[in-house]
Structures are given as C-alpha cells and as structure tokens.
Design brief:
Elements: H1 9-18, H2 26-53, H3 60-63, H4 67-83, E1 88-93, E2 100-101, E3 110-118, E4 129-137, E5 158-164, E6 168-173, E7 178-184, E8 189-194, E9 205-207, H5 220-228, E10 239-240, H6 246-256, E11 258-262, E12 273-274, H7 275-288, E13 292-294, E14 311-312, E15 314-317, H8 319-336
This protein binds 2,5-anhydro-1,6-di-O-phosphono-D-glucitol (AHG) and manganese (II) ion (2 copies).
Length: 337
C-alpha cells in the first residue's frame, strides 16, 4: 500500500481545488477534516468490537459502549471536529433535535448535515456501519437561516460517506466524479483506490426488508417480482442482499449494481429514512455516479423537506430500475384511483 503513484485523499482534494482558481481552500479543508473525523470514529468502532470480545479485562468503563453510546461518540466527534475546523457555520445531525450553530468567530462558509452512525443496530453483531454527510454553502454571510439546512438535496455541493466495513472507506463526490479512498491502518492515510466510481447499468442485487411486505404499498411486491423474474432456471442474474445499514447496502450496490428500496410502511404511513442526512447525500452520490434516487413519485434531490428530521420513501441505485419503480408507482396509482 505504498508507492509514488498512489494518491492520498488530501492530495486528491488539493488537486481538485486547483481546477477552481477562485476557491478559497475552505471546502478542501473541510473535506480533509471530515476524513479525520472518520478516522477517529472508526478507531472507536474498531475498539468497541474488541471490548465486546474482551469485556472482562476491566477495560470496560470508558470503552464498553452500548450502541447508543457509540452513536453519541460518533456524533460528538463529528460536531467537535467540524466546529473547530473554521469551515462550518451550522450543522444538522440525526442525533440532535435542533440545528447546531457555530459561534460567529469560528464560523465558515459551509453547512454540514450528517448521520453520524448509520446502521447502529448492527454494531453489536460486527456488521458494516457508516457515517453519511452532505455539504451546502451557507445562504447568508451573517445569519443562519431555516433554509440553510431545510433545503432540497440538489443544492448540495459535496456529499459522501465513510463505511466501516472489512476496511474503512471514504467515498465522496463534488458533483463531478465519485471517488473512493481506503484507509490504510498502518500509515493512517486514505488512498484513492476507486477513482471515478460508476453505478453499473445492470441490477445484480435487490435490497429490501422483505418482512415489511404486508405493509408495503401495492406496487412494491410486483416490482420485486419483476426483478426476481429475470432469473432463469439455468442462470442467476439477480440476488437478494440486505444488510440493514443503508450506507453499506448502498456501497455494495454502487460497486456491484443494484437497487435498494425502503418504501412507505402502512403502519406509520411514511418511509423510514431521513431526507436531509440519509437520503439526499446518497442520492447526490448515486446521480453523480450515473445511478438515480427517487421517492417513487419524483427525484429525491428535488423533494422540499418541511422539517429537519423529515422521512421519505427511498428507491436508490441502478438508474433503469429506479425508473422502473416509478412506472410501477404510477401504474398502481392509476389502478387504485
Ligand atoms: P440509523 O442506524 O442511523 O438509525 O439508521 C438505520 C436505518 C438504515 O441504516 C437501514 O437501512 C434501516 O434503518 C433499516 O431499517 P429496518 O430495520 O426497518 O429494515
Ligand atoms: Mn441512519
Ligand atoms: Mn444514525
């Protein structure tokens, strides 16, 4: 994992910055700080696994965390790191009820929204989890406004995630390309290992929590059947894979080609996933990589959220199959009408 041809995350970000002569460098600094926050969180995630195994050694007071504790650690790490970066004016987190404003003397030009730990129910069972983030330019030079945070996802200028899987990987987009960096634990650096990631054209994987089927809208089961029916007796073309960590399900589908669905549930009459810090960052990545993301009724990035923790249905992945889902939604809406 060395050699002069291998580019680090910081080198990549600085090279990109040179393509924008008017750039102040603040976005570059911010992305670098996000990478550092990711390193700190992954160190805690990796240690929590060890403590779970070696819990009887006495080292449990600080590190023997519950899932909620690790959520809190990830949240505090992200907030503290970004607050001190001098690049951020405001933040919104899944774990915070309200917008977090940065004191004026430390505030920068950007607004960051994030899910500090996605898939936290998977921590105890050593399954991949991650951090999701989206970045916007602040709307007003002096004040933080409601529309700094509660805004459609197409206004994002960058977005990404860090997945704590078999290795730690940071994937981010500036709206031009999607690039993936693997953390080398020995040097502590992220290296560009998946430049210009593209969502494959073909769906190889369908990801959905099938136990919710009795509560799906009418279009979902026939849509899933349509995808499954691509398999022949002598040839398997699609398979089911559902991790239960959106970020990890998305990451796999981005590499292998697939569609992830979390439809509206009749019990709650809404989707589960949060628009601002779960759906929109991944939607921005999906579109930049040549995929798509939809609520079923329209482009996810055009949805106008009404409040910080709004939820929506999400269909994300291979473009043709996200579009196919929209045709199923329309067909069943007509039949139901
Ligand atoms: P979080 O851990 O941030 O609360 O998010 C969990 C989300 C998402 O990662 C996953 O796809 C989904 O919840 C799974 O929900 P179900 O258990 O309802 O399938
Ligand atoms: Mn989440
Ligand atoms: Mn979370």
């Amino acid at each position: 994992m060395s050699g002069p041809q291998i580019i680090t995350l910081t080198q990549h970000i600085l090279r990109r910055q040179r393509q924008h002569p008017s750039a102040t460098g603040q976005l570059s600094a911010l992305l670098t700080q996000v990478g550092v926050a990711g390193k700190m969180i992954q160190a805690q995630v990796r240690r929590a696994g060890l403590i779970e195994v070696w819990g009887a050694t006495g080292e449990t007071n600080v590190q023997g965390e519950t899932v909620q504790k690790l959520d809190r650690i990830a949240n505090d790490t992200f907030i503290d790191m970004l607050r001190r970066s001098a690049c951020v004016a405001a933040m919104a987190s899944e774990e915070e009820h309200e917008v977090i404003e940065v004191p004026r003397e430390m505030a920068g030009d950007y607004v960051v929204v994030f899910d500090p730990l996605d898939g936290s129910s998977n921590i105890d069972v050593n399954v991949s989890i991650g951090t999701i983030f989206g970045i916007y330019r602040r709307c007003h030079p002096d004040d933080i406004l409601r529309r700094d945070v509660i805004r459609p996802g197409h206004q994002q200028i960058a977005a990404g995630y860090i997945v704590y899987g078999s290795s730690t990987m940071l994937v981010y987009t500036d709206g031009v390309t999607v690039d993936g960096f693997t953390l080398d634990p020995s040097s502590g650096e992220y290296f560009l290992t998946r430049p210009n990631m593209r969502m494959p054209d073909k769906t190889r994987v369908i990801s959905i929590n099938e136990c919710n089927e009795p509560y799906w809208p009418a279009w979902v089961a026939p849509y899933c059947d349509a995808i499954k029916s691509r398999n022949d007796a002598d040839k398997r073309r699609v398979s089911a894979r559902h991790i239960g960590s959106l970020v990890a399900d998305f990451h796999r589908n981005l590499i292998s080609g697939g569609v992830f669905l979390y439809p509206i549930d009749a019990r709650t009459r809404r989707g589960k996933l949060r628009v601002i810090y779960e759906c929109n960052p991944l939607a921005f990545i999906a579109e930049t990589a040549g995929g798509a993301a939809s609520t079923g009724e329209g482009r996810m990035l055009d949805l106008e959220p009404q409040s910080l923790h709004d939820r929506a249905a999400l269909i994300i992945g291979t473009k043709s199959d996200v579009e196919l889902a929209e045709t199923f939604v329309r067909r069943y809406a007509q039949e139901g009408a």
